[in-house]
Sequence to fold (174 residues):
Amino acid sequence: MESNLLNSLGLDPGILVIGMMGILILVLLYMVHVSMKMTRFLKRYRIFMKGKDAQSLEKAFSQKFLEVDKLSEMSTLHSDEIHRIKDIQKHSANKIGIVKYDAFPDVGGRLSFALAMLDESDTGFVLNTIHGRDGCYTYIKEIVKGESYIVLGPEEKEALRQAVTYFSDMNGGQ
Fold:
């Protein structure tokens, strides 16, 4: 069974059949590869859709988007609240300095003290309590931007210095 057409082209029918079988084997291997990929994809798809139909899956996504929106809104509220708290904190006494001392040579125990309490702008007061044999006396002096309009004693000056440098002392002088 010879073909004049194949003979005129100079092709051997056996080689042509072998070539076609090689191509067929390559196509078959490619189809097995694609089939394996499709099986893996279907397995992942079934896991993803397990217990869900398209509508319930859409509802689940919608619910997650609502939760994300709520979290975003809460984050904004928390950010606003943090700014409000920081503004309040600027005006509260958060810098302190205290010096204990003996006000009189005949009274020991360092029961007298000077306490400075300042806000962020170094405004506040110095409280000086003097303990003696006769009683205990307390004096308060206003501080504005780290300065007093009333003369301060050495202990009060030291308490004020401690309060003004409170945060730099806490950070190791940084």
